[in-house]
Specification:
By secondary structure, the protein is α/β, with parallel strands linked by helices. The protein contains 13 helices and 14 strands. Residues 221-381 form the Methyltransferase FkbM domain. It comes from Roseomonas populi.
Length: 426
């Protein structure tokens, strides 16, 4: 051991001398190693820069996608764009420091990538929500268009269906918007009028009836004829309502009775085969060539007549019955009908009256238009003219101008028109 220990310092000195001698020889090799390390670092930096470029491209694609969806979710897109721009600034800052902070860049890039993945996932989820919302909106839009198309088809097909007439015995069965009606086969004028109007012979009058009435109301229809206004009134008041129809012509009353049964309305409509007048009795009804022109007054062109029972409306309608609307179409016989319904007028201060004003009928009856109008205004009614084209009503013109028309349906109201919110006022 004593021989070995003294030799160690000598060996160390010899090693140092050898290293100093080898340094010039090792320097080129060390330089090559340093160059390779630097190249490896630069290559790693280029890879990281490529990843940063890819991330930037993904950010730009997300921004472009969000901008295309800005109309649907502007606020959410703005917030997300600001966050992505902040991330972009962070990436740019990392690029500036990549030469000296490769490890920091790697960590930052990884963290940024994770954050972007989360942001992209959130954006994709939002886009899915927007797609779902738009699908629902599109579905609603399609449904709305479908409803419009169905309504358009109904508007076009209803008149076409009304023009189909089926012979039933000595009558024709025609379809109206509210149901089927039997029309006398011999009444060519009425058949043509119904055919051409698509079942709406007086569309404005029907619209007023439907606007004034509500479900459960009671209606008087004096001069019901074949039921052109009876059916709309019955459909409007429904099973809880009541229509009291009066028609003196035997043939028309029988056809109307059969029509009511055909439509299942015989439980709503009480049909009375008689004329309405000032006092009970009998009278001669002059039958017109056109069904709706038959009259208890003298009628030019009438080829026959029939004896009919006459009853007062006060007799037909039980006391205490609340009448909401009375439609009167009796070809100039209105004063007699009016005198026979005094109790009904007294019991129903809010009742509306729909009546035909026909100057020619009044001349045959020997009644002055002013006296005829005073019969209603004296009882507290205000007259409104019915526009048959639109269904709207407007205050009646002065009597001289009104007397110049051939015929007009008037709505008489004791209450303000505002009481009838569904009624259109021109």
């Amino acid at each position: 051991m004593s021989d070995i220990e003294p030799s160690r310092p000598i060996l160390r000195r010899a090693g140092r001398v050898a290293l100093r001698g080898l340094r010039p020889l090792a320097l080129p090799f060390l330089h090559r190693i340093q160059l390779r390390v630097r190249q490896a670092a630069e290559s790693a930096a280029q890879v990281l820069l490529g990843r940063l470029d890819d991330l930037s491209a993904r950010v730009e694609r997300v921004e472009a996608h969000l901008r295309s969806e800005a109309a649907a979710s502007e606020r959410a897109t703005d917030r997300l764009t600001l966050r992505i721009q902040a991330l972009q600034l962070g990436i740019d800052a990392l690029r500036l420091e990549q030469g000296t902070r490769q490890e920091a860049i790697t960590r930052a890039v990884t963290a940024t990538e994770e954050r972007l993945e989360k942001e992209i996932t959130a954006v994709e989820g939002r886009l899915a929500e927007l797609t779902s919302d738009r699908a629902a909106a599109i579905q609603a839009l399609v449904q709305g268009r479908t409803d419009i198309i169905h309504g358009f088809v109904r508007e076009r097909t209803e008149p076409l269906l009304a023009r189909a007439a089926l012979p039933v015995g000595d009558a024709l069965l025609m379809r109206l918007p509210e149901g089927f009606l039997l029309i006398p086969a011999e009444d060519a004028s009425l058949i043509v009028a119904i055919y051409e109007s698509g079942g709406r012979l007086e569309p404005g009058t029907v619209a007023v009836i439907q606007a004034v009435l509500r479900e459960g109301d009671t209606v008087l229809d004096v001069g019901a004829n074949v039921g052109l206004t009876v059916l709309p009134a019955a459909r409007r008041v429904g099973p809880a309502g009541r229509v009291i129809a009066v028609e003196p012509t035997a043939r028309l009353a029988e056809l109307l009775r059969r029509s009511l049964v055909t439509n299942g309305l015989d439980g709503i409509v009480a049909l009375h085969r008689c004329a309405a007048g000032a006092a009970p009795g009998t009278a001669e009804l002059n039958i017109g060539v056109t069904s709706g022109h038959s009259s208890l007054l003298a009628l030019p062109g009438s080829e026959r007549s029939e004896t009919v029972e006459v009853r007062t409306l006060d007799d037909l309608v039980p006391p205490g019955t609340r009448i909401h609307l009375a439609k009167i179409d009796v070809e100039g016989f209105e004063p007699d009908v009016w005198r026979g319904m005094r109790r009904i007028l007294a019991e129903n201060p809010g009742m509306a009256v729909l009546v035909e004003f026909g100057p020619e009928h009044l001349r045959r009856a020997g009644i002055q238009p002013g006296d005829w109008m005073a019969m209603f205004t004296g009882a507290g009614f205000t007259p409104y003219e019915v526009d048959e084209a639109t269904g709207a009503v407007r205050p009646a013109r002065p009597l001289p101008a009104l007397a110049a028309v051939q015929s007009a349906n008037l709505l008489m109201l004791r209450q303000p028109v505002e009481v009838y919110p569904a009624l259109r006022v021109a």
